[in-house]
Amino acid sequence: MTDRLPSGIVVSALLRRVNDSGGLGAVLARGDAQGGGILVVIAEPGGETRVVERGLDAKGETALIESFRGELADDYWRRRRARDPDLWVIELDSPDSQRFAAETMLAS
């Protein structure tokens, strides 16, 4: 058994935080409610689109890592989703998206 919160609850909390702060958050693809991975597409105003997810950093510690950056972020997450139907994909459009994603996903 793991101490991690179910993915559906983490996604709901993250979307609520972003939306309550005046940003926009949306589910692009719904994954497994209990244990699906979560990709976050960050579309900050005036910035380059990035895709981040929970993973291990160089020290082997859990961190929010960038898995893709650029115009083809949509293609990237669709390919990932095609290989993993349990994967959640959410998009955040807020100046604080990175911070909200890190605080919510790494605390769970």
Walk me through what this model shows:
With 108 residues, the chain is of the alpha+beta class. Helix content is 33%, strand content 30%. The protein has 3 helices and 5 strands. The chain has helices at residues 7-20, 73-83, 97-107, and strands at 24-29, 38-42, 50-56, 62-69, 88-93. The chain has a 5-stranded mixed beta sheet with strand order 1-5-2-3-4, with helices on both faces. Helix 1 runs antiparallel to helix 3 (97-107). The longest helix is centred in the first third of the chain and has 14 residues, at 7-20. It is globular and about 40 Å long. It starts with 6 loop residues before the first helix and ends with a helix. The mean pLDDT is 93.
What is the element layout, followed by pairings?
Layout: H1 7-20, E1 24-29, E2 38-42, E3 50-56, E4 62-69, H2 73-83, E5 88-93, H3 97-107
Parallel strand pairs: 2-5
Antiparallel strand pairs: 1-5, 2-3, 3-4
Helix pairs in contact: 1-3
- In quaternary terms, these chains amount to single chain
Q: Could you give the count of β-strands? A: 5
DSSP helical segment count: 3
Global Rg: 13 Å
Look at the helices and sheets and give the structural class: alpha+beta
What's the arrangement of strands in the largest beta sheet?
A: 1-5-2-3-4
Helix content: 25-40%
Q: What is the H/E string? A: HEEEEHEH
- Give average pLDDT, whole number: 93
Question: Unreliable runs, pLDDT <50, ≥5 residues?
Answer: none
Q: Tell me the span between the first and last alpha carbons.
A: 14 Å
The backbone outline, from C-alpha atoms, is globular
- Beta-strand percent range: 25-35%
For the largest beta-sheet, the strand count, sense and barrel status come to:
5 strands, mixed
